[in-house]
Amino acid sequence: MIFNKDTAEKTAELLLQINAIKLNPENPFTWASGWKSPIYCDNRLILSFPAIRNYVRDEFAKNIEKQFGKPDVIAGVATGAIGIGILVAESLGLPFVYVRPEAKKHGRQNQVEGFLQKGQNVVVVEDLISTGNSSLMAVEALRNEGANIKGMAAIFTYGFNVAQENFKNANIDLYTLSNYENLLDLAVQKQYISEDQQTALQEWSLSPSTWGQE
Question: Was 128 annotated as part of a binding site?
């Protein structure tokens, strides 16, 4: 679910402007999973544009507090959401921790890095939601440390049905600054893509694992 329509449209436009999101249905990208995709999203580019990263920071901070209440801690999911998560925590005047994909093999073998007390209320910040699996693994790691997860806030989601089911089953509320639906509407409006290309992009979102296969 998006925080609100205006933020969703503005965020989508900014991501397109800096090529954090690229749309190319005629020459699709190949994801690490092997899926063919007409869209590629790299939200880490946001950190290289001060005005845009400040916008994302401020929208996150405002809407997290509005939707979840002010938490005790902000947690970022490594590695893509560490930078923006720190900015959000700083804006809210809160502690920050981050969650590795898995525990370290050496030292203290931490998966959650930073100071976290049992029972603290945590909002998790993520950069991108596809299936939601890796994001929810971070939630599980935080819960294993005794955290009370208030919800997750992400920059962008593809809106896959499987992700919605995964978050529902994990009992986690997910809110995003923008999503695939608003991105496509904005991309047509601003002539980044044609209406025919929009149709192809919509078809992909219905069956991303099989799209583009002969």
Answer: yes
Q: What is the pLDDT of residues 14-40, one digit of tens each?
A: 999 999 999 998 899 988 888 889 999
- 3-class DSSP assignment, residue 133: helix
Instruction: Kindly report the CATH number assigned to the domain that includes residue 40.
Output: 3.40.50.2020
Enclosing domain of residue 72: 5-198
Check whether 106 is labelled as a binding-site residue: yes
209 located within any domain: no
CA–CA distance, 29 with 153 (Å, rounded to integer): 26
Tally of domains in the chain: 1
Q: CB neighbours of 44 closer than 8 A, spacing ≥ 6?
A: 20, 80, 83, 127
pTM, two decimal places? 0.93
Residue 87 lies in a domain: yes
Query: Is 127 known as a binding-site position?
Result: yes
d(CA 68, CA 60): 11
User: Which DSSP symbol is given to 47?
Assistant: G
Cα-to-chain-centroid distance, residue 211: 22
CB 52 within 8 A of CB 88: no
Q: Does 142 show up as a binding residue in the annotation?
A: no
100 labeled binding residue: yes
Is the residue at 212 inside a domain?
A: no
Residue 106: pLDDT over 70: no
